[in-house]
UniProtKB/TrEMBL annotation, chains A, B:
Top-rank EC class of the record's enzyme: oxidoreductase
PROSITE patterns reported in the protein's UniProt record: HOMOSER_DHGENASE (PS01042)
Domain Homoserine dehydrogenase catalytic: 134-311
Biological pathway: Amino-acid biosynthesis; L-threonine biosynthesis; L-threonine from L-aspartate: step 3/5; Amino-acid biosynthesis; L-methionine biosynthesis via de novo pathway; L-homoserine from L-aspartate: step 3/3
EC assignment: 1.1.1.3
Record-linked NCBIfam families: PRK06349.1 (NF004976)
Membrane-traversing stretches: none
Family designation: Belongs to the homoserine dehydrogenase family.
Keywords assigned by UniProt, alphabetized: Amino-acid biosynthesis, Methionine biosynthesis, NADP, Oxidoreductase, Threonine biosynthesis
GO MF terms held by the record: homoserine dehydrogenase activity
Name listed for the protein in its UniProt record: Homoserine dehydrogenase
Aspartate/homoserine dehydrogenase NAD-binding domain ranges (all copies): 10-125
Catalytic activity: L-homoserine + NADP(+) = L-aspartate 4-semialdehyde + NADPH + H(+)
Length: 329, 329
């Protein structure tokens, strides 16, 4: 049986989730791809820390790009570099790539997609946006005829958790944040989440997917949740509203408009009932109407799920662009 | 430019929605398929009633099966027959088919899928289940690696509307039903909806998609909403619960278990907040966790959306089963 050899860049929470899932789902992946799937190579900064993995550990990306046996590269590194340079080299070496790196992809996604097209390889990035919710594949493959008119979304689980706690437990922002940190939902430096940068990156990725371009970043209002007080929450409660941190994007007069900000939602809003660390996306389209997806916005397994579903679409031939007249579903 | 010629069976609410959408989305369909898309032939019982359509109206299915220029057939007829016989003949004549007919597909879906496989054509049936929500394509293409452990769903908009009205307006079942009928949400004979047959058919279609088989129909508990009283609703209100009509399916000890029945849902249940004529599906999987989709469960355009997205998947080659090593997404 033909084998698909995978290289994994990074072995943090997400990387471990990918490795574990490929191992636990051997049979299923074999059914889908017709091949056996192995993680053969791990690129990690400190190989001595990861004695338990079953494969070659390397520190130099060239070991991967120059190895013709490696078919596909999963990237689960934090931060723009060296992730971007690594993926660029992998694509140039003719390897499919799958990334979970939102900040990097918000900045370099267009270039990487173009590079992948030139090198006839696939690039999967569903894990960059809304964790396990397969929103990228959904818009790309399942909502092709529909024009997306507007997206409103809760794209950051940390801020949604904090806002939920502030309301449910009458907690102050600082206390809710501290609790989120204790539970591992927020980083020691929470700026990226609570100031809305994380949601902003994801929104820019959605913009490029839907409109094939991003708005000028300076034109996008980005307000975090740090200034929301217990009084704000209480006042919203009185009128049966909830403050949610909403990322939205739509087009007006041919121009892309986007913003990330706290919004008071009435009870009948599709994002009103989204609680805790969940993410949700409401898509308004011209044929279907409104569709809302809700699911886990982060975590090792949900993120691994998105990456491995990207993998399955690549190897089951379903992301193939060429038209076929004889098709069986 | 190559043309794709469509035949449309039935020109009721759904048929008209399909016809209208193909006409309004000419440019987009051309971009997706690389072809111009025309509805060239209409099979309708009373052609004299539909003088306004632009194409050939016929009453004999052979006019379609024997016409080599017709590539694909959209079926929007009510009831098992003649829909099943028609689709069978179309598939045997080498034409792709797309259906919105849930009762027919719950009974004959397996046979039609097998027949399509033999004749190397595609069969699209996303419109049979949950209206515009692309649940079939989602499970088929975007959740391939994930094992679906359990599905809980609101699959009938009529009953959900009635239950919502009973609670919100303190209405008796009969009054809420009458209002649903006046608004066109319920048929003159509402049995199919309020006794749970409609939800049951959709659940059986999901069963076959997920487990590749259906449970014995006699083993599936199916309880409608006709016996729910104002007192039941009020008692649930007191404990912050809501009665919803839930279709669920899961496996236990290798056996498929399924039921359709009213359930008291607590506030934190993912289907608690689904109101009015909306449908929603909560899927529990082994990698991702829980994913919920919410959207319009019926209506001309949502149903047309599901059918036309099936069409796009067929003609963009994305439902192709054959493995491809060179793929670009």
């Amino acid at each position: 049986m033909k084998a698909i050899n995978v290289a994994l860049l990074g072995l943090g929470t997400v990387g471990k989730g990918v490795y574990q899932t490929i191992n636990t789902h051997q049979e299923r992946l074999r059914d889908i791809t017709g091949c056996s799937v192995h993680v053969s190579t791990f690129l990690i900064e400190h190989p001595e820390k990861h004695a338990t993995v079953n494969g070659t550990t390397v520190t130099d990306i060239r070991t991967i790009t120059e190895n013709p046996d490696i078919d596909i590269v999963f990237e689960a590194i934090v931060g723009k570099e060296p992730a971007f340079s690594y993926l660029k080299k992998c694509i140039q070496a003719g390897k499919h790539v799958i990334t979970a790196n939102k900040e990097m992809f918000a900045v370099h996604g267009k270039e990487l997609r173009e590079l992948a097209r030139q090198h006839h390889v696939s690039i999967g990035y569903d894990a960059t946006t809304a964790g396990g919710i397969p929103i990228i594949q959904m818009i790309q493959h399942v909502l092709q005829a529909n024009n997306v008119l507007k997206v409103q979304a809760i794209l950051n689980g940390t801020t949604n958790y904090i806002l939920t706690e502030m309301r449910d437990q009458n907690a102050a922002f600082e206390d809710a944040l501290q609790q989120a940190q204790q539970l591992g939902y927020a980083e020691a430096d929470p700026t990226n989440d609570v100031e809305g940068f994380d949601a902003f990156y994801k929104l820019m990725i959605l913009s490029e997917l839907i409109y094939n371009e991003q708005p000028n970043w300076n034109d996008v209002k980005r307000i975090g949740i740090t200034s929301i007080s217990e009084k704000d929450i209480a006042e919203n409660q009185l009128t049966n509203k909830r403050i949610k941190h909403i990322a939205s994007i739509w087009k007006e007069d041919g121009r892309i408009l986007a913003k990330v900000e706290p919004v008071s939602l009435p009870r009948d809003h599709p994002l009103y009932a989204i609680e805790g660390v969940d993410n949700a996306i409401n898509i308004e389209t011209d044929i279907l109407g409104e569709l809302t997806l809700k699911g886990p916005g982060a975590g090792a397994l949900p993120t691994a799920s998105a990456m491995i579903e990207d993998f399955c679409l690549i190897y089951s031939g379903k992301s193939q662009k060429e038209k076929s007249t004889v098709v069986v579903s």
